[in-house]
Amino acid sequence: MKSLTNKFCIFLFTIMFIVIAFSNVFMADNIKVVKADSGDNEITVFSWEDYIDEGYDSADDASEYLNSIFTKDELESSVLDIFEEQTGVKVNYQTFATCEEMYNELIKNPNACDLLCPSEYMILQMKRENLIKPYQIPQNYSDYASPYIKTVFEDLGLNITAGDGSKMAYATGYMWGTMGLLYNASKIDADELSMWTNLYGAKFSNKITIKDSLRDTYIMAIAIVYEDELIDLKDDYAQGTITKTEYKQELTQIFNRTDEETVNKVQRALIDLKDNLYSFEVDAGKNDILTGKIDINFAWSGDAAYAIYEGEEAGVELGYVVPETGSNLWFDGWVMAKNANVENSLKFLDFIAQPEIAIRNMEYIGYTSCIGGDEVFNYVQDAYDDGGANQVDLKYFFDPEGTSGNSYIINSSVVGGQLYAQYADEETIARCVVMQEFQKKDLIRINEMWYKVKLITWQTEVIWLVVLGVALVIAGIFVYTYRSKIFGKITLKDDKKTNKNGLVEISRTEIR
Q1: What 3-state DSSP class applies to 219?
Q2: What distance in Å separates the CA atoms of residue 127 and residue 30, rounded to the nearest whole number?
Q3: What is the pLDDT of residues 270-297, one digit of tens each?
Q4: C-alpha span between 415 and 209 (Å, rounded)
Q5: φ, ψ for residue 284 (rounded to 5)?
Q6: What angle do CA 172, 177, 182 make, to 5 degrees?
Q7: Does residue 222 have a pLDDT over 50?
């Protein structure tokens, strides 16, 4: 009996091991190993996947505008190839799926890279932890970066003035945008998504995807749980009771709440919303809406712009809207590691801030560059101005002081389309704020909340079904192997009977 007990314990431990193994396979971060210590004539760059122009298979695939400013050979080469040819500096370009992966690699080896392109909250965290250093602002960035973007960076303490009066930066902007709702315009009107709480409607059951990203989904939930307060605040701003600056300050305070009561409200809101979710996702949403699996995708504006363009090609009408109560204003920027090769890094940053290179990256990846200037506006005008009745004023981004004399008006026949995803109007931008980094004491509570929200999702249900199936197979093998000890020994005896013809019938009876 003791032997049987030991075997049964081994069986239970086996099941536990399988469950843990499956959990590790599906939940562990796939951190890439990267080359460290760039040489004198090279730099290592950490950035996102699919986040730079890698060159076209054929120059014919690029727009007429790009063909007018680049040669065929240039368009069929990546911008990194062009940089290396112009400067003689080799770029080791490493890609990551999350800011946390970049951060962890830098923590493990401070010499792992020279430049990184994380998001706003991670930039602030790296600055606070003294992992990055300020650098002289490259000339092209100084000349062409959007005045609006420069102001955002200055407000966050990322652009500073050194003691000698020179302009320094902890970060310079690369891409930026908003977060909103990408929707199937043939089934849904934009007005139906004017509020985040409309996502709970029965019409959208199993037709929504939201981000499998704690920070992005958290800010959406904040807009849900504090909707009444945000509506009152917007009304005060519209009526002139508070200034634009005061409106921004109040919005920033609300969207960055992390107290215990707020976190509990966010948890309840997200768990309730799961009834209408198709899934949590990071990159699949823009394709799922194109194939008809879903009707609404909580999306980064760059992904929305990409999906709307692809929808036009496929005959699927999509739109993008930022609900009335506000949302996230995000950006990705270039930061310099403490041990970076400064000279070569500055060459790269000056190159990447050229308007024509910014245009190439915008067109290739679908996101919106932090670089402004007339050349970029001319590209935007060429792409979107069809003489329509909808006037989109982009002065706030290109020239808020009105020094150039250009009106920066796009006349479009489309409302809420690709142009709006790439360059939201000033009214929308007024209700979008930067989400700051979570403090460590709050992050523990927020992570616990996120774990509870994600405890059972469509993906994890599939995982657990697989685990259960494997466990049942093992249990079956175990029971069969030790069936005699579990159920007792089985013996057989002959029960002889004589039939009417005088013949003997033998039947087998199980005796336990």
Answers
A1: helix
A2: 25
A3: 999 999 999 999 889 999 999 999 999 9
A4: 23
A5: -80, -20
A6: 160
A7: yes
Does residue 319 sit in helix, strand or coil?
Answer: strand
What's the pLDDT at 28? 38
Q: 145, 152, 148: which is closest to 174 by C-alpha?
A: 145
**Residue the block writes with tokens 């927020």:** 446
How many residues belong to the chain? 512
- For 45, other C-beta atoms within 10 Å of its C-beta total 21
- β-pair partners for 168: 136, 160
Long-range contacts, stretch 32-37, CB < 8 angstroms, 24+ apart: 32/94, 32/95, 32/96, 32/101, 32/105, 34/92, 34/94, 34/105, 34/112, 34/113, 35/92, 35/94, 36/109, 36/111, 36/112, 36/113, 37/111
pTM over 0.85: no
99 touches 118 (CB < 8 A): yes
Beta strands in 145-237 (DSSP E): 159-161, 167-169, 172-184, 208-211
- pLDDT, tens digit (0-9, with 9 covering 90-100), for 109-165: 999 999 999 999 999 999 999 999 999 999 999 999 999 999 999 999 998 877 788
First to last CA, the chain: 17
